[in-house]
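Reopening this one. Same input as before:
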Amino acid sequence: FFPSNYGDGTLRAQNTIVTHFEHPEHCGDFALISVQDVTELTRSVEGYRQMRDLAFERLQEVERVTAVKGRFLAVMSHELRTPLHGIIGSLELTKDTLLSTEQQEMVAIAHSSAKHMLTLVSDLLDFSKIEEGQLAIRPIPFSLEEEVTRALAPLTVIAEEQGVRFEMSVDEELPEVIHIDGLRVNQILLNFVSNAIKFTDAGGTVRVRLEKSNDRDEGEFLRCLVEDSGIGMSEEGMKKIFKPFEQAEEDTTERFGGTGLGLSIVAKLVELMQGEISVESTVGEGSVFSVLLPLCQVSEDDLEKVEEQTEALSQLGKTPPARILLAEDNRLNQKVAVKLLDKAGHTVVVVNNGKEAVEACSSDQFDLILMDCHMPIMNGYEATGKIRELETEDQARVPIIAFTANSSEEDTLACIEAGMDGCIQKPFERQELLLAVSRMALHRCL
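Same output, byte for byte:
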């Protein structure tokens, strides 16, 4: 640094270059000294460094907050889904008991309300995962007509109770098995149909067909359309419905309920699946919601997986009695699972944590283990690892199915990596549990 030439005593930054050379006409060495004032340049570089460090600190803070938010959502998912599992399971069992007509109506209302609450919880968690970029699309072999019909069955019952009829039509040219994220296809259609039921008094149609190309690409595409004859929407309303927390009209939430998240989630799912979404509507005449989704190629392995699933479904009610170990710390969930399995003819041994599960497996043999992931003393992941260590080469591998109230893809992968063979998310339907048992029997694990 050197003093300023302006006499104010401030220090300036300098860049000094010294060049050594021999003069061609005179003897001796010479030095050329060049001095440049780089004060302003140094200040700009220092400012850049400060901005970079500040941006890095803020990025670390965002990552910390995101991690905290992720843990909070995981805990909330578990804490909300666990009691909902007990409520829904208990109501399903209550339906099988002798009830008066009035009691049946009350149970049906409670069951429908609990399922609606589960939908709201799932929507909020899905929306958060989409916002954080954590929702993955996983194409699988998918028997569309069979799976979609099953997924829409609860809504069909609700529609009929309201005097509304929805007819489903599947294009004959559509392959029996397609390769797509079937879970998300069901989620899209469920949102469309539940939305249509809410806004119509007459009914509508669900149409699914195969399309060979669109405006941009060649290939095969799945076109899903849900048409209703309801109240319809204005041009302004159609611009708002795919935005989070927005409804077509100001009084929609008050009149019909809902969070305004369902269709915005659908729009995000379609975007993640690299598809297209559109809506056509006329006030007082109804609406048509449409999505176009690209299909992957179907392999021989895909066909085999779907055949296995179909076979497992056909075996429901025919599965031979199995001896099942249930590791679950929640007393209400224990009772629900035991009664569901007992009604299907299975014998259930209950333990309260992972440590007890390991001890039970070291002294007894089971055809199947149902393992809750989050338990005191020892969790399900650790218990599964210890049970796998107990198994010998000449011993048949005991299938372990995870019970978890967490709903993320990471949780499912964690179950598989821990040594489990499948995963059932709470709350689950009775058929889903019995299907998992049937599938294990089909694989000759029982």
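So the earlier flakiness isn't reproducible anymore. For the record, The CA atoms of residues 296 and 360 lie 45 Å apart.
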